[in-house]
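Exercise: predict the fold of this chain.
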Amino acid sequence: MNLHIARCLIAVCLIMGSLTGQAQKNNFSFDHLGIRDGLSQSFVNCLVQDKQGFIWIGTQDGLNQFDGYHFKVFKNNPRESNSIASNYIHDLAVDEQGNLWIATDNGLNRYNPAEEKFTLYTVPQKGNELKQKFTALFIEANTIWAGTAGNGLYTIHLKDKKPALQLVNTQVNMQNSMVQSIYRDKQKQLWIATNNLGAMCLGATGKYLKTLSKDNKSSFVSNCVFSVFDFDQNYLWYN
């Protein structure tokens, strides 16, 4: 079975199990939405709700906006410079100004709902624009943390006059690694979950602190970590 599908099935089972009692008490109902309803593709990687109430859904073939009744699909148009950079969406996040940030296979996009256009953020290297595969996003206050596949971790400071991607010095070689998720715990530490290095920990200021993996006696059974989240005040869960 495809690993991603298996993860989704487990997550759905856990959610359904925890909601069963509540659903019976509150009479919750569930609707299935798919391609026949207007969704661009059935493999959903991520979703988020913006400040206007719209649900944004990232798939492997298009970005979808759902208003509760209908889907509006956004896809790359090579003839339009303001279109989304790629149809493969890895992650989504909304900043305090209501802009939607999209991690795609071909760069990092910002969608301004007021202007209805996409802005592409790229990393300049040796005079050329290197479009990167962005895989994970985390937004706090006016800082965006953006993880990539094979190119490390970046930040964008939104209060700068010209916000731009800046490489974070993690002190770890990430050229062959993919960032799968980013999480700030209750101790203000930032965790970077990767596909083959375990979970890296950065301090409140972004300074590298440590890496937890099966190679350094951290009780990990695998270096492939999908996500990190707080269980309570004393424990973190690593998926």
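Check your answer against the key: The CA atoms of residues 38 and 70 lie 7 Å apart.
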